[in-house]
Amino acid sequence: MASYFDEHDCEPSAPEREARTNILLEIARWVRGAGRWTPGELRSLFISVDFEDLGLGVDWDHHLPPPAAKTAVESLPRTVMRGCRSELKCPVCLLEFEEEETAIEMPCHHFFHSNCILPWLSKTNSCPLCRHELPTDDDTYEEHKRDKARKQQEKHRLESLHGAMYT
């Protein structure tokens, strides 16, 4: 007796594709039923959904980070450029700062004209020179950063352990 897949000349689907299909079928049932699910049922469905597995999550390693948090941008220090500091150039527009001009100082100690850095920070959260990151208001990106830091620490600990074993 031939198997179902041999009989129909097809292959079984991959588990991740099957999970995607099941979730999409559940959503289709809800839509077809004119949205008769309670908010609690919908919430539990979407909590159980792993959007990364569905290919719907953002791959932050290949996308521009989100904008800097407004509170972080507003709290950046403003510095009056005096003396030798006034000889510095804004890395964005490459113009020298004028004496007594106010510049925005990033946490990495790079100075920028406000009309140069503020549009940049409204698009992404990092310094244009060194990529030092400011906090964002995007929870998924912040979680990605924490996960990346944890993985980096774990890798460092494993390398240290490996190095200690062979010295």
Automatic annotation (TrEMBL):
UniProt xrefs under InterPro entries: Znf_RING (IPR001841), Znf_RING/FYVE/PHD (IPR013083)
Disordered: annotated segments: 140-167
SUPFAM superfamilies from the UniProt entry: RING/U-box
Coiled coil: none
CDD domains, sorted: RING-H2_RNF181
Keywords from the UniProt entry: Metal-binding, Transferase, Ubl conjugation pathway, Zinc, Zinc-finger
tRNA-binding keyword on record: no
Pfam families: zf-RING_2
Pathway, per record: Protein modification; protein ubiquitination
Cellular component annotations (GO), alphabetically ordered: cytoplasm
Record bears the keyword Transmembrane: no
Domain RING-type: 90-131
Alphabetical list of Gene3D superfamilies matching this protein: Zinc/RING finger domain, C3HC4 (zinc finger) (3.30.40.10)
Annotated GO MF terms: ubiquitin protein ligase activity; zinc ion binding
Bias (Basic and acidic residues) ranges: 142-160
Catalysis: reaction(s): S-ubiquitinyl-[E2 ubiquitin-conjugating enzyme]-L-cysteine + [acceptor protein]-L-lysine = [E2 ubiquitin-conjugating enzyme]-L-cysteine + N(6)-ubiquitinyl-[acceptor protein]-L-lysine
GO biological process, one term: protein autoubiquitination
EC number per UniProt: 2.3.2.27
Quaternary assembly: Directly interacts with ITGA2B and, as a result, with integrin ITGA2B/ITGB3. There is no evidence that integrin ITGA2B/ITGB3 is an endogenous substrate for RNF181-directed ubiquitination.
Its biological purpose: E3 ubiquitin-protein ligase which accepts ubiquitin from an E2 ubiquitin-conjugating enzyme in the form of a thioester and then directly transfers the ubiquitin to targeted substrates. Catalyzes monoubiquitination of 26S proteasome subunit PSMC2/RPT1.
Family membership noted in the UniProt record: Belongs to the RNF181 family.
Protein name as catalogued: E3 ubiquitin-protein ligase RNF181
